[in-house]
Amino acid sequence: MSDSIAERVRRIIVEHLGVEEFKVTENASFIDDLGADSLDTVELVMAFEEEFGCEIPDDAAEKILTVKDATAFIKANVKQ
Amino acid sequence: MKRVVVTGMGMVTPLGCGVAINWQRLISNMSGISAISHFDVSDLPSQIAGIVPRGHGDGVFDPDEFVPPREQRRMDDFLLYALAATTEAVEDSGWKPKGEEDRARTGVIIGSGIGGLPGIAATAVTLERSGPRRVSPFFIPAALINLAAGHVSIKYGFTGPNHATVTACASGAHAIGDASRLIMFGDADVMIAGGTEAAVCRLGLAGFSAARALSTGFNDRPQAASRPWDRKRDGFVMSEGAAMLVLEDLEHARRRDARIYAEILGYGLSGDAHHITAPSENGHGAYRAMANALRNARIEPTAIDYINAHGTSTPLGDEIELSAVKRLFGKHAYKMCISSTKSAVGHLLGAAGATEAIYTILAMRDGIVPPTLNLENPAEGCDVDLVPCTAKARTILTALSNSFGFGGTNASLVFSARP
């Protein structure tokens, strides 16, 4: 699949955090590894919601701390 | 009390990005007013403005030069302009804090009339159309006026006084005056002070139009629209940009052998206590602001060679200001030069006072009075030297700059060429 969920998630992270693509590894933490602050993480979650047409409740959003967390949440909650 | 001097200047206006290009164009009698083309104005009464030229190259504003693209999302344009003008001013001053103590002795006061109005307008639409979950976490910090001073302190690590003035079109002048007082009282050795504004958007134009403040009769001839004291004037032209000064304790500046542009000799403030938008008919507020500035400077009215007037090109305001000048200065009003540089750049609102402070200082430095463009037929009683249409040579040792704002708030600054 050329445009997988993982790839779309990575593209959004690269765009919003202005980081180089190779840094966006599976285990990368938005705050510790990719230079995001708390406002960036709120905006990232909004961007995921927009891209995937879903709603990510605040308590779930708080647990999305890494690239892998984001991909996993979307795979589990978004109908393809 | 310490004496305060200007050691650095930076600006972004419709005439260009940078002090040198601004000055060169201003004294070449050029106008920065143009037709608005970057958003729909077809249903607005005023369709012109002073827009900061953007792009790449000399004299045009390129936000990427000042703020990383990723950070730009956190800032409305008024913050970007503030950072651009500050960058130039700080570099120009050569002030480089050497440690924590130096940084703690360096502060920032940046004023703005309205702050992030375009972002407020756009976010209100987002809220109505898409609901609160679509409102950006950066919306509030991108719009708040004191974030200009906040961003400057974060960028440079200046940990001294951090403040903002919000007095409509007097914000820039009040920032400079208040910052000079902080240095005088020993709260800081160096202050970044100025104003910034970027409210040229549909909501801003609609609002000022509704208040009947804007020029509407020159949409087909934008460069002729701002015409202070002229019989055909019909309102001000909205404009955007930022201007920053580096103010410094005279002794501090001398110790580091800094270039000194001018001394802040006097600062006067007053309130009209009259009307929310109109100046008091007798010009008493303007009179007292100027008189207070002269008293604070400990000079006689006859010492003033040049007044950079508030002169916005509104039917009411221009003549009231001039009548106040005539009452205060008497016969000397006929011996000095008075001009309004808003004729060239329009009304930068909260950035106007700082922009005009820089123009005033450059007028002293070079002995050139910037013109009042489009002053073809002066209104009755406008019989003093208003420097119509063309810049002129004149030695200026001491100058005064006026800024008045909605709500009836007035500020006058007196600058002298040599400390």
What does this structure look like?
The complex is a heterodimer of chains A (80) and B (419). Chain A contains four helices and no strands. Chain A is an all-alpha fold. Helices cover 33% and strands 19% of the residues of chain B. Chain B has 14 helices and 15 strands. In chain B, the strands form three sheets. In chain B, strands 1, 2, 5, 6, 7, 8, 9, 10, 11, 14 and 15 form an eleven-stranded mixed beta sheet that branches. A two-stranded antiparallel sheet of chain B has the order 3-4. In chain B, a hairpin with a 3-residue loop joins strand 14 (398-405) and strand 15. In chain B, helix 3 packs across helix 7, helix 8 crosses helix 14 (352-366) and helix 11 (284-297) crosses helix 12 (317-329). The chains are: A mainly alpha (80), B alpha/beta (419). The interface between A and B is small, with 10 and 10 residues.
List keywords for this structure.
heterodimer, A: 80 residues, mainly alpha, globular, B: 419 residues, alpha/beta, 14 helices
- Termini separation of chain A: 12 Å
Number of helices of chain B: 14
How do the SSEs of chain A run, as a string of H and E?
Answer: HHHH
Q: How many beta-strand segments of chain B?
A: 15
**Percentage of β-strand residues of chain A:** under 5%
Helix content of chain B: 25-40%
State the helicity of chain A in percent bands.
Answer: 40-55%
Mean pLDDT of chain B: 97
The gyration radius over C-alpha positions of chain B equals 20 Å
Shape of chain A: globular
Structural class of chain A: mainly alpha
The largest pleated sheet of chain A is described as:
none
Summarize the SSE layout with pairings:
The complex is a heterodimer of chains A (80) and B (419).
Chain A lengths: L4 H13 L20 H15 L5 H4 L5 H11 L3
Helix pairs in contact in A: 1-2, 1-4
Chain B lengths: L3 E10 L2 E2 L1 H8 L6 E3 L12 E3 L18 H4 L4 H17 L6 H5 L1 E6 L5 H14 L8 H5 L3 H10 L5 E2 L7 H14 L5 E8 L4 H9 L30 E9 H6 L6 E10 L12 H14 L8 E3 L8 H13 L7 E3 L2 H4 L6 H15 L1 E2 L22 E2 L4 E8 L3 E8 L3
Parallel strand pairs in B: 5-6, 5-7, 10-11, 10-14
Antiparallel strand pairs in B: 1-2, 1-8, 1-9, 3-4, 7-8, 9-15, 12-13, 14-15
